[in-house]
Every structure is written in C-alpha cells, then in structure tokens.
Amino acid sequence: CSNDFELNAPAKEIPIVYGLLSRADEVHYIRVEKAFIDEQTSALELAQRPEALYFEEVIVELIRERDGTTFLLEEVDGSQIGLERATGIFATTPNILYQIAAEELNLQAEETYRLNIRQTGDGGLLATATTPIVGDVRLNRPIPGNQKPPLRILEDDEITILWAADETAKLFDVSMVINYEEFDPADVNTLVEKSIEWKLAESIEGADGPNRVEPEGLEFYRFLNANIAVAANLQRVLKTIDIRIDAGGEELFNYINVGQANTGITSAQVIPNYTNLSSGLGIFASRNTFLETGFVLDAQTKTTLQNNDLTKDLNFR
Questions:
Q1: What's the rounded Cα separation, in Å, for the pair 106 and 19?
Q2: CB 3.0–4.6 Å: which of 35, 78, 125, 220 could bond 83 by disulfide?
Q3: pTM (two decimals)
Q4: Which conformational region is residue 37 in: left (phi greater than 0), alpha (psi within -120 to 50 degrees), or beta?
C-alpha cells in the first residue's frame, strides 16, 4: 500500500465574515473575505495578495425577516473613503467592504435581520446568519436630560452609574469622556480643547435588574494624574463629562466569551472558534451606543480637583 497522503483537501472557498449592525451608525459595513491555503505558497505571501483575500464576485444582502424586504449592499473600497485597514500581515489596498446607508436600512429595535452571502451567477448560498437588533439603553443615574444635576466626584465616595436595557442587550462597555481645555495664560491663542476616555468597565454581562458600575472616586483622580502631563506653564479647565455605554447582543456576547476562554495550564488545549455563520467563520451581530453629554462638576469636586495631591500640579481652575 502507498504511504503517500494529502495534507490539504481539494480547494474550497470558505467565507470569513464580520458585520456589526448598530442603530447608532450612519452607514453599515460588512466585511466579506475568504480563507486561503496553497501547498506551494506561504500563507504570509498569500495574505498580501488581494485576489487571495477577496471573492471575485459575491452578492451581500440583508433581509428584514418581519416582512421579507431585501436590501442589497454596495461593494466599496474602504481605502478610498477614509476607512484604512490596519497594517499587518494582510494586504491593505484595496480594503473591500460592503455598505448600506442607515436611512435606507432603517433598523428597528428587536427586529431580526438575516445576512446572506451569495455567489453571483448561480446565486449559490455561501453563508447566512441572523441577529436581532439591540434596543436602546436608558441612563438612570447620573440623571440625564437638559437639567442635569452637577456631578460630585470625591475621593472617598463611589461614582454610581445605573442604566437599563431590554433583553436584546447582553454585555456592556461603560466609559466617561472627560473634556477639558488647556492654555498658556500668557498667550490667549494657545487654547486647545482635549478629551480623554476613562474606561470604567469592559464586556460586563447584563444583569437581571438594573445594570451598574461603581468605580471609586479616587480612581477618577488617579486616571487624570496618569493621563494628563504636568506642564507648569499651562492652565486647564474641565468643561464637561460625557457618559458612553456600548451594548452588544447575544451573538457578540458569545463571540467575546469564547475569545476570552481560559488558556492557562488547566484549560483544554484546543480553544473553540465561535461563529454564528451557517458556514465559514466570523460574526454577524448587533450593538448599540448610548451617549449622554454635558455633565459638569459641582463646586466641591472642582475644589478637590485643584487641591488633591494627585491633580493639583495639573493646574485645573
């Protein structure tokens, strides 16, 4: 008998798909690529060949399952519209994406959408997946709206952020965006507006009741100390704080959890790949973003900011 055998199966184009639909986006993008292997050519070399990364011709469509309405996505080169692909092992040009305007798709919370990737010509289905659309996040504390109470952030207190979401939201990222101005008092033309983002929580699972994060107030001052450089000639004014909450659906929750699987010495040697595609790999999921802007600090917090050992050298006024 022969000892010869083939390591690779006959060639087959396997789709790799990434798409996150969000009601907060003005344009929706889906990335569709293909897996590749060649016994004669290194994978690193193939990764630099666009013809190895992308299908020559495919149809990418979204279907609203409630009424069967089909939306055809347009192929675009992201590198030509300001969406550059990060440099790495894969070719950066072209950066093929499939897009549709938010106003055309008009996503509605809790409705389900199906993604179909089809071959042109015979219309053969390469991959399909569904996702419900994540609904809105509602901030309960700090109190949102036009008449926001000033924020009090003291070293010995906790900062409480409470919010609610419907059952389509399974995980959350929470952050504060701190907006401030800095300037040289000797030159009024030096005023610069700056922002820094303080991540309070990442990929936390949704709760049965109200969702919350409660970082210590001291961490606020430590964050400013670590992220704003001391400059004796500059004065600063903390203008506003924005609260941002990003919500992800169940498919995204599963995808992230599998990706964070334990890889220590007690774990299984083979880490599974999560995909909700009918064939191939990747993720088709939904997310949403809530942003409440314009919180200001109360007088006691401003005084603490000026006198605290961690922030007094930052020259906030």
A1: 16
A2: 78
A3: 0.84
A4: beta
